[in-house]
Amino acid sequence: MGGLAALARAAGHKVTGCDTGVYPPMSDQLRALGIELIEGYDASQLDLKPDVWVVGNVVSRARLPDDSARYPLMEAILDKGYSYSSGPQWLSEHVLQGKHVLAVAGTHGKTTTSTMLAWILECAGLNPSFLIGGVPLNFGVSARLTDSPYFVIEADEYDTAFFDKRSKFVHYRPRTAVLNNLEFDHADIFPDLAAIERQFHHLVRTVPSQGCVVVNADEPALTRVLAQGCWSEVVRFSKADALINQIEWSLSGQHNRMNALAAIAAAAHVGINKDVALRALSTFENVKRRMEIKGTVQTPNGTITVIDDFAHHPTAIATTIDGLRRQLNASGKQNDRILAVFEPRSNTMKLGAMKAQLPESLKDADLAFCHSGGLDWDAAQALSSMGSRAFISNNIDDLTRAVTTAAKAGDHILCMSNGGFGGIHQKLLDALA
Questions:
Q1: Residue 424: Cβ within 10 Å count
Q2: Which of 3.30.70.20, 3.40.50.720, 3.60.40.10, 3.40.630.30 is the CATH number of 2-86?
Q3: Model pTM?
Q4: In percent, how much of the chain has pLDDT > 90?
């Protein structure tokens, strides 16, 4: 929604927005664009009298314990009969019309892959517009509107709005669609994997006959999606693909190689050859909150590094730790420890749907520290098989003290969350210093 606000501002509209607890980097980006942020959902915002209210999918008809509305502004909009739209619908009708949309979908890697794709198009001189759910370091902003015919978008399968329960990506009508991977997630809105596969097939249905579907051939769920019908060219990529070239870059892990293959294949559909794509990727700087080093602390015996990553699904946690471990091994630091600090904050994790997978996802970490605040399930029990390697607390300050006490020279403290994590990165750096 923050990126959408930036696009609306770039299109010449006056934009304001409201939310609760907005945190960097998006809050900083919006304020830099002159977009006013209002804290909360008070109905007095009706006095702003905008031409249209664009409603994010966090908004619901939920009630508080005292039976008052959780989102009184939305109730007032409905009562007044004012014009409102979902973010994806507004984007489709006012920005994406007439564009060659390149949409990147998948359970994991959407942000990184769409950023890679946008950067390849940029280096090829195509000056793409884009909307990405993170801040690409090469661009410095999460959204950009240009006069280019090409628009790269991160295509999320989460539902559109409380009044539109289809996945967001069905609104985007891509001409190039990347299906990067698919496994069960979003347990709060999908009953099973088959329900998500159905939504992915809705996306496939919208790709024109002259379009292209770039699909991960290693994913059984995506094979089932295409088996339901596909009316466009299909280009497949796989872990088993023959070597096409070698590049040097700062990224690590098999998952990023797969992300790169997907981006290269999607770029080829708009006429960019692989050599141009590979040169672009050699200068790719990743995305904020993707293995982002937040700071280091020098000790008499060496350095302690604090890293931030967006990982929150067990598969993402496992691949992130594995990528860091491989990076350390490759640089001769195989004896350095990884301290995994994480919070199961997503709706799926809060429900406990993936709790049984957590110990396995953390197996390559030397120690694990879990923030259990807000969970309806027992994190200590879920991680009991890890024994003394796991520490659990529902308090950020207690968790910070535990990590600080355990840390020693050479450690890499990997903080993983899809939220602000209570500012734990700076708390750790301050405490360690």
A1: 25
A2: 3.40.50.720
A3: 0.80
A4: 73
